[in-house]
Amino acid sequence: MGQVLHRRMLKTFIWFGTVALSVAWASGAALKPDIVYVLADDLGRCDVGFMGCRDIRTPHLDALAASGARLDQFYVQPLCSPTRAALLTGRYPMRQGLQVGVVRPWAQYGLPLDERTLAEALRQAGYTTALVGKWHLGHCQPAYLPTRRGFDHQYGHYNGAIDYFTHMRDGGLDWHRNDEPCHDEGYSTHLIAREAVRLIQAQPKDKPLFLYVAFNAVHAPHQVPDSYKQPYSQLKEPRRTYAGMVAAMDEAIGQIVAAVDAQGRRSRTLFIFCSDNGGPQPGRVTSNGLFRAGKGTLYEGGVRVCALATWPGHIQPGRVVTEPIHIVDWYPTLVKLAGGSLEQPLPLDGLDIWPVLTEGKPSPHQDILLNAAPRSGALRAGDWKLVVNGQLDELQQAENPTAGAGRGSSRAKPSLELFNLATDPYERTNLAAVHPERVNQLLSRYRQLAGQAVPPKAGPRPPGFKAPAVWGQTP
Q1: What ranges do the domains of the chain cover?
Q2: How far apart are CA 364 and CA 6, in angstroms?
Q3: Superfamily name and number for 32-359
Q4: Over the stretch 310-352, which tens digit does the pLDDT of each residue have?
Q5: Is 190 a catalytic residue?
Q6: E-assigned strands of 313-399?
Q7: 32-359 and 368-450 have identical folds
Q8: Which of 2, 94, 291, 406 makes an SS bond possible with 372, Cβ 3.0 to 4.6 Å?
Q9: CA triplet 253, 145, 92: central angle to 5 degrees?
Q10: What is the mean pLDDT of residues 417-424?
Q11: CB neighbours of 331 closer than 8 A, spacing ≥ 6?
Q12: Cα–Cα distances in Å, from 458 out to 84, 361, 448?
């Protein structure tokens, strides 16, 4: 009698446990995926196999793309720091004064301290949070450093354009572990991969991980061990070295994926990959395919980048997402997946794109602001795209970001371009004169958003500035 009762109680316990687990998964309570977000630097849209590249081999990225979704209309900002700010806050960089240029080594500012970061939101949701690689969101004071912005672990550099082997920028050391100087030796792409693997191996089985891997590859200076260039002898410099850098990064990503597999965490891991902007010097160094222009511009070649997302059992393998989405969307999407809270003082621009990725739903956006600088900007609404003063380069504006006497100011008539991306994705035909009513509609909305922008913080190098011996420390 006792054994029968025991068996019945055991069956009942198992049944209730199964139901509870099912309810938890259905409600999202147990759906705390590991999140590995890999961000490439200055990678051309068409310099990976899954986006059609034929002269550079990227087998590991191609395998990730095949296992999930290729994001065909994924937008970022035209430059490095603004894209990173958008990812980590879910807000357009024009709200932070980061819409022009990048955070230069001499900058006495960074990502505003009142911004809640993705790392903070995920840590509050129970995650271990780690940044490996490039920060580029300020280092003028300790409060701006990654370990003060929600990251439990930090490894890598603060500035852009460091030397890949010496880890120096303008004579100062820029390599750090947990925001303290670090003298590890080696090629930076290798070191970033090694640290990412170490963190994956050390992660407790019962705790979710947010691992933000921000390679400085393939940003200039173009440097790579010779062995990576050898398979690309048919290419001319500088593309040959660049190809080797892409190959080294792809190998590093393969090592990170292998570490996840070895720890038995693949089924619970959401991998995301994209570039921070379009490729610079397209046709000479990088390839953005047929898309117009590249890094630092508001045209598709500057802001529509290679991207993928994959999570076994959740994102259908081989899916191609053709809905327009923006990097600001990852913040609310990931926090929601993690069971975290989106209640915060500063409102988000990003929207939840999980139904777009998993169910084929339309983009949740009525429009996407591609940027709003004092003298230039762009807005996409549906298939239509308005470009304001597209001839102005974002990098050039950084030297004098608030000048308003030129074209595009409130006192001068701006140059306006209108494109129908459904029929003209390569922006060859300006339809502004054909559809003036559409121009006025988009321009009104653009000005509404641009009116919410704060003044840009970027400025020229101050006279007499000297690099410190170690970046992040007082000279």
Answers
A1: 32-359, 368-450
A2: 52
A3: Alkaline Phosphatase, subunit A (3.40.720.10)
A4: 999 999 999 999 999 999 999 999 999 999 999 999 999 999 9
A5: no
A6: 319-321, 325-326, 368-372, 377-381, 384-388
A7: no
A8: 94
A9: 75
A10: 98
A11: 87, 88, 89, 90, 91, 118, 121, 348, 350
A12: 16, 38, 23
Q: Which amino acid is at 419?
A: F
Find the catalytic residue in 60, 136, 219, 365: 136
Residue of 46, 53, 80, 306 marked active site: 80
Write the pLDDT tens digit of every residue in 376-398.
Answer: 999 999 999 999 999 988 777 77
Cα separation of 327 and 462, whole Å?
32
CATH fold label, 368-450: Arylsulfatase, C-terminal domain (3.30.1120)
Go through the chain and tell me how many residues it has. Answer: 475
Residues with Cβ within 8 Å of residue 82, at least 6 apart in sequence = 93, 98, 99, 102, 371
Alpha-helix runs per DSSP H in 90-157: 118-124
Judge whether 80 counts as a catalytic residue.
yes
User: What are the pLDDT digits (tens) for 113-144?
Assistant: 999 999 999 999 999 999 999 999 999 999 99
Tokens of 146: 């990654």
Model pTM above 0.85? yes
Give the pairing type, strands 153-157 and 128-134. Answer: parallel
